[in-house]
Amino acid sequence: ESTAANARNLARVAHARSLFHRDPTLALMLLRDVEPLAHNLVKEWRAAAMLALSRPVSRLILQGHRQTVNHVVLSEDGTRALTASLDGTVRLWDADGRVTTVLQHDGDVRVAIFGPDEDTILAGTATGLVVAWDLTLDDPKPQKLGQHSGVSGRTVHSIALSPSGRHVLTASDDGTAVLWGLDGGPGIRMR
């Protein structure tokens, strides 16, 4: 038993040392999981921990998406984060890193932002769809604001809210930027 624990400890310390320069947060997480130390590992563990702590580490890691996270944005007051993912979800996180809301879409969500009142989430998808979710509803569903319709590609890569909060501007692979009215009016294409 102690030989197996010692081998696990050695492997964790070695793996942590290999991560210092590219992911000190993960290195510290591995060191945290080292089992009660045998006397011969204390010096190596301490050296590894000091090296990891000499690098900037993350305050918080948001985990929960099943695929690539394409976009992240903070709320205006900095207390919430919004992530968009290839897994077809937009997730709303609180300041402690807990998911408070998961918004579903049928395909890849490339970008997402908070709407004018932060009770609305706006997003652009890989299929060129621009959608909004109303967070005041018990079970928010994506509402279509518009659709990029290029033949050679239409993934929405960028989305921005107008200063007035009445329009959203999206940019797509189809070579256009479109200004959409949040009141449901037709979009204005800019080439």
Could you explain the architecture of this structure?
This protein is an alpha+beta fold and 191 residues long. Helices cover 20% and strands 34% of the residues. The chain is built from three helices and twelve strands; from the N terminus they run αααββββββββββββ. The strands form three sheets. Strands 1-2-3-4 form a four-stranded antiparallel sheet, with no helix packed on it. A four-stranded antiparallel sheet has the order 5-6-7-8, with no helix packed on it. A hairpin with a 6-residue loop joins strand 11 (177-181) and strand 12. Helix 1 (2-19) packs antiparallel against helix 2 and helix 2 packs antiparallel against helix 3. The radius of gyration is 22 Å and the shape is elongated. The relative contact order is 0.09. The model has no long low-confidence stretch (mean pLDDT 86).
Question: From the helix content, strand content and strand pairing, which structural class follows?
Answer: alpha+beta
The radius of gyration over CA amounts to 22 Å
Distance between the termini: 68 Å
Bulk shape: elongated
Low-confidence parts lasting 5 or more residues at pLDDT below 50? none
Percentage of residues assigned to helices: 10-25%
For the report, how would you describe the main beta sheet?
Answer: 4 strands, antiparallel
> β content, as a range?
25-35%
Helix and strand pattern: HHHEEEEEEEEEEEE
Mean model confidence by pLDDT: 86
* Number of strand elements: 12
Count of helical regions: 3
What strand order characterises the main sheet? 1-2-3-4
